[in-house]
Design goal:
This protein has about 425 residues and is mainly alpha-helical. The protein has 19 helices and no strands. It has one domain. Helix content is about 75%, strand content about 0%. The chain starts with 6 loop residues before the first helix and ends in a 5-residue tail after the last helix.
Length: about 425
């Protein structure tokens, strides 16, 4: 149960939090082009809650919120690596990047109740930022059509504001937010139609952008939505029409989208490179598979505790130099679970898996659709990316987890 402060304090707290959250969204999209903005806005979000909440209330709210209390362990368990990591400098860098996980877990239970207007501002900021950035990417694609199409045959992607995997996941999340908003908050037919048109644009954009993990998460959340619709309405005909429309979009995309065709060709080439044990350099899928292989080799050295978060990069780089000298820049294991298996062993992996998913299973929030969407996006993304090993990745992860968690706590009727 949330401990209430004064109404005046709560008002200013939610106003400042809303303002910094909207700027935080801008900071996420701008990414490495404006890293200071993301840091400033993150600090602003945290301070807007901490400074306007009595310390005892802040702590009481945190302790009483089982979801956030357990979620904080997905950062705290890494501190154990201090006792068996030699490279403490690298460990410190990893912890610094991930400390927002702890801070946001601490402040989130004390946000208070955002008004409908504030929620609307945050939602439309997210949707607007995604639409504007996607529109800019499409415009650039049209202007450099042949050149960008060729990139897709070289394991590359059309230029975007941030890493293509994280960006495509944000677009999928924005589509989920639109779906939720139409069901829960849209007040007029005109607003619903505009939101539907926006969702369709973003879905089509994802097929033009042609990021494998982004499309996979899109289809996964659509499947979840359709299953929920069948359970709720028993209207199989409506669901059949939706499935048919989706299949049609996919088929048409392969026919008219050079990026999707080229991505399919490149994927087949990548798989063959790894299967035939050829040089994986400059082949994204093959290099990813190599990173899994090296991580599993590191994990075998100490299956229970791993190498220690601080020493993982050194061990990984050494294996790349030994076994794959043609790869100039070794990559960390591009799977969050395998990454933690290598860094923290089975014990750490179990702690992380249970604590990170706590917002989903605490209070049976897995029954709430937006939470289902959020974790489907992240758990699929974790198979292809060590999401929380970069500042932008941490911010994206917190955004996708914590907004649905807040709404689940305060508006369970949306289920």
């Amino acid at each position: 149960m949330m401990v209430q402060g004064t109404s005046n304090t709560d008002y200013y707290k939610t106003v400042f939090f809303t303002l910094f959250t909207c700027l935080w969204l801008v900071g996420i999209i701008l990414g490495e082009k404006a890293p200071a903005l993301l840091s400033i806005c993150s600090i602003g979000q945290v301070l807007s809650i901490m400074l306007l909440t009595h310390p005892k209330k802040l702590w009481a709210n945190f302790i009483s919120d089982k979801g956030m209390l357990i979620f904080s362990l997905s950062f705290l368990f890494l501190l154990l690596s201090f006792f068996y990591s030699d490279n403490l400098k690298y460990l410190g860098e990893r912890l610094q990047i991930k400390v927002p996980i702890l801070l946001y877990a601490l402040i989130w239970p004390s946000i208070g109740v955002l008004s409908k207007k504030q929620i609307k501002v945050i939602f439309y900021s997210l949707i607007g930022i995604c639409v504007i950035s996607a529109g800019g990417i499409v415009t650039n694609y049209i202007l450099h059509f042949e050149e960008i199409n060729q990139l897709y045959l070289q394991s590359k992607i059309m230029p975007g504001p941030i890493n293509h995997i994280r960006y495509s996941l944000l677009i999928v999340f924005a589509i989920c937010v639109i779906y939720y908003y139409i069901k829960q908050h849209a007040e007029s037919k005109t607003e619903k139609k505009l939101l539907m048109a926006t969702a369709i644009f973003l879905i089509l954009f994802l097929h033009i952008y042609s990021v494998r993990s982004g499309l996979l998460t899109l289809y996964a959340v659509i499947a979840i939505g359709l299953i929920n619709q069948v359970i709720a309405t028993k209207n199989y005909k409506q669901v059949g029409v939706a499935v048919g429309a989706l299949v049609g979009i996919v088929m048409i995309s392969f026919v008219i989208s050079p990026t999707m065709r080229n991505k399919l060709i490149n994927t087949k080439q990548d798989v063959n490179v790894y299967a035939n044990q050829e040089d994986p350099n400059f082949n994204s899928l093959a290099t990813r598979m190599v990173s899994y292989k090296t991580a599993l080799e590191i994990a075998k050295e100490n299956i229970w505790l791993g190498s220690g978060q601080g020493d993982l990069q050194d061990k990984n780089n050494a294996l790349f130099r030994r076994d794959y000298p043609s790869i100039i820049t070794p990559i960390i294991p591009h799977n969050q679970f395998i990454y933690y298996l290598a860094a923290t062993g089975l014990i750490g992996l179990i702690i992380f898996s249970l604590s990170f998913t706590a917002p989903l299973w605490i209070s049976k929030f897995y029954k709430i659709e937006l939470m289902q969407f959020a974790y489907a996006i992240l758990l699929i993304a974790f198979q292809f990316e060590a999401m929380i090993e970069t500042q932008i990745g941490v911010a994206c992860t917190l955004l996708i987890v914590l907004i649905p968690y807040y709404l689940s706590q305060n508006r369970k009727a949306m289920a």
